[in-house]
Specification:
This protein is an alpha/beta fold. The protein has a single domain (37-310), classed as TIM Barrel. Helix content is 35%, strand content 15%. It has helices spanning 6-20, 37-40, 63-71, 105-108, 117-120, 141-148, 165-174, 188-197, 211-223, 252-264, 279-287, 298-310, and strands at 47-50, 75-82, 88-90, 156-162, 181-185, 202-207, 231-236, 268-273, 292-295. It has an eight-stranded parallel β-barrel, surrounded by four helices. The longest helix has 15 residues, at 6-20.
């Protein structure tokens, strides 16, 4: 009698079925949509900070500079110092050498902290920029706040040089501009102290340095959970190393990763591209995820951003 090997027969049938039946469909992983400024930030909400008021257009930190910054649709930045008699004013430098016309050598070495407001108010801080600007004077920050009261669209960065926080907070509240000022500093501890006093205020932490230095700063900020920060600015410069494939002093990967992290924390990512007047440089930073600019050239930057939004694709990479 012929014997059948049942186990081998079953194996053959199973093999045949496996060959015949189609393999189950394997779904491809969903492609990650690249974040773009155009896709998430309406052009009328894109923020441009006019450095020192109106950048290079008019004498810095003057009333004229702030008025022009607002007129352009930007957010002017002011630098705050306190006079010898306790008046908070808008002035950048630690001495008078650069921006006071016809200053005497002995006075050129002094600064805002060394004289009274009555003395400071006599200085010409416009003529150094050109004859057409003769006669401009250093304003009190309270006078600038008066120009903002009742005009919520007028925002102002307050870059802290030398002031008393309680005094500044009192003046901010007196003019009802708590939600219009953006407390600006490289010192995180100072910012957190301010937020306890005026929690309604926005804040901007600015940082310069090498990529390694910035990475260290970010580690410190993560440890503090980025407490009190609503905007963060990093300084970017064009790369002067011709042997490098990177267009900036900071790598593109670092800039892109910074933007991703800050967006995840709902912190506005701003860059200050020092000395940049080429629209394509701004375009590449936008491609990398920068959401805001600080600039010394507000008209150029405004036009570059407008042109970027009118493009149909992100094709602005610097080669």
């Amino acid at each position: 009698m012929k014997r059948f090997n049942i186990s081998s027969s079953l194996a053959g049938i199973i093999a045949a079925v496996c060959v015949t039946l189609p393999s189950p469909a394997v779904e491809a992983p969903e492609a990650k949509t690249q974040w773009t400024v155009r896709g998430h930030v309406p052009p009328d909400k894109f923020v441009i900070q006019s450095h020192r008021g109106a950048g290079e257009l008019v004498p810095e930190n003057t009333q004229e500079a702030f008025e022009l910054g607002w007129k352009l649709g930007t957010v002017p930045e002011s630098d705050l110092r306190t006079t010898k008699d306790g008046v908070i004013v808008t002035f950048h430098d630690g001495n008078f050498k650069r921006t006071v016309k016809n200053v005497k050598p002995a006075m050129a070495k002094k600064g805002v902290v060394d004289i009274t407001y009555a003395e400071l108010s006599k200085f010409d801080v416009g003529g150094w920029k050109g004859e057409e600007f003769n006669g401009r004077h250093v304003p009190k920050v309270s006078d600038i706040f008066k120009l903002m009261t009742g005009k919520p669209e007028r925002l102002l960065h307050l870059d802290i040089k030398n002031i008393d926080l309680q005094q500044l907070a009192k003046e901010v509240r007196e003019h009802k501009v708590e939600k219009q000022v953006i407390f600006t500093t490289p010192k995180h501890d100072l910012m957190r102290e301010w937020k306890k006093i005026v929690p309604e205020s926005q804040t901007l932490l600015w940082m310069g340095g090498t990529e390694e230095e910035l990475k260290k700063r970010f580690e410190e900020l993560r440890a503090a959970d980025f407490s009190g920060i609503t905007e963060l600015q990093i300084h970017v410069r064009l790369n002067t190393n011709s042997a490098s494939a990177e267009p900036f002093n900071l790598s593109r990967d670092f800039i892109r990763a910074t933007g991703e992290e800050l967006r995840g924390r709902k912190i506005l990512f701003q860059c200050l591209p020092w000395g940049v007047t080429d629209a394509k440089v701004y375009w590449q930073l936008l491609d990398l995820g920068v959401e805001s600019f600080a600039t010394d050239f507000p008209k150029i930057t405004l036009q570059a951003v407008r042109d970027y939004y009118e493009q149909k694709s992100d094709s602005s990479q610097i080669k």
